[in-house]
Every structure is written in C-alpha cells, then in structure tokens.
Design a protein that fits this description.
The structure holds two protein chains of two kinds. By secondary structure, chain A is mainly beta. Chain A is built from no helices and eleven strands. By secondary structure, chain B is mainly beta. In chain B, the strands form two sheets. In chain B, strands 2, 4, 5, 9, 10 and 11 form a six-stranded mixed beta sheet that branches. Chain B has a five-stranded antiparallel beta sheet with strand order 1-3-8-7-6, with no helix packed on it. In chain B, a hairpin with a 5-residue loop joins strand 9 (86-93) and strand 10. The chains are: A mainly beta, B mainly beta. At the A-B interface, strand 4, strand 5, strand 9 and strand 10 of A face strand 4, strand 5, strand 9 and strand 10 of B.
Chain lengths: 114, 111
Amino acid sequence: DAGITQSPRHKVTETGTPVTLRCHQTENHRYMYWYRQDPGHGLRLIHYSYGVKDTDKGEVSDGYSVSRSKTEDFLLTLESATSSQTSVYFCAISENSGGYETQYFGPGTRLLVL
Amino acid sequence: KQEVTQIPAALSVPEGENLVLNCSFTDSAIYNLQWFRQDPGKGLTSLLLIQSSQREQTSGRLNASLDKSSGRSTLYIAASQPGDSATYLCAVRSTGNQFYFGTGTSLTVIP
C-alpha cells in the first residue's frame, strides 16, 4: 500500500475555520498528490508536489494551499473552509516502476463543513 | 484538457458472468492508463497499469486493453464473483505528471 497514511480520517468543522489535512508516506517517494472525490465528478486534482518545497496547482486548487517541508509529509490547508469543500480527500503518491509512474492512494479523509 | 468517461455508471450481473467495463478519453497523447478498484468508504487500489506502448495487461481474472488511437480502454473481468462488487475507475496520465480520472462504474455481482 506504499505506506501512505492520512490524518485525520474524519473531521467536522464550521464554515470559515481553517483546516489542515496531513498526508504521510514512509517510502521516500518524490511525487505526492491531493485529490478530492465528489459524487458525479470522480477524483479531481487539487495540488501536487514534485519535491520538498516544490508544488503546483491542479484543476480545482482555488481555496486550497499546500506545503511540503520534508519528503514524507504533504499538508493540505483550507484557509477558510466553505460548505463546497465538504468532500472526501485522498492523498496519493506515484512510484516509478520500470520507467513508468503508477499511483497509490491513502485511505482518505472525510471532511464535513457545516 | 483531458476528459475521461466511463460508461455505464452502474452495472449489475449474476455471479459467474464475464463482463466488460469501458473507459474512453479525449486526448490520445497519454503516457499510461491505470485501472483502480474502490470499495465503499475506502481508498483506491491499483489493479492494472497499461503503458501507452502496450495493447493489454492481465492479472488473474482481469484483462485490460488499450487502444490509444481511438481513446478507449476496456477492463474484462472473467467469471465474476460477489467479491468483485466495487466501483472501478480508470485514470490516464497525460503530459506532465498529472492523472485524470473517470467517474467510475459501480459493479454489483449478484450471488
């Protein structure tokens, strides 16, 4: 399972509060990703990282920021949570095997913004 | 922007039947295509990865094919079992290191 953990696994928060989700990996993978999964939309990329302090935006990055100060941790922050950010958030890594990138996912974080 | 579509959205079959799940994508310039399984309330589990230069990959009762020129992939499941019930997603890796996902096919195998 590529040693990916996410915390917290469940969170309920109120509109306007900041929220930080953590993704931790134990196998020194370079690439890490944050996705959100919503009914009817599948998984959509929020941000990704290609190294310590190297990050880039995905297709739904508005309202989210990320940080990666060490290889094993990738943090996703909702600066001021809104109800539209209620979702299931997945962290993933990509592993290079034989020159090709394969993705592996964490267990997910269920976020409810009231 | 790459668009990935999976049809049907839901499928119900009796146990033992062979079945095919479909995935189509709009931009044929892909590096690879990956099939995942997702159980309710769980993360995604990688099933098969097909490189852009390959035509198919097999793992046990699963066979995935890729026709890059037509923008299509299929996942064939032989002799379906109730334990195969899950949502199946396909994802393509396009330029850069971004992956684009379909919305999935929810499969129910009836005992």
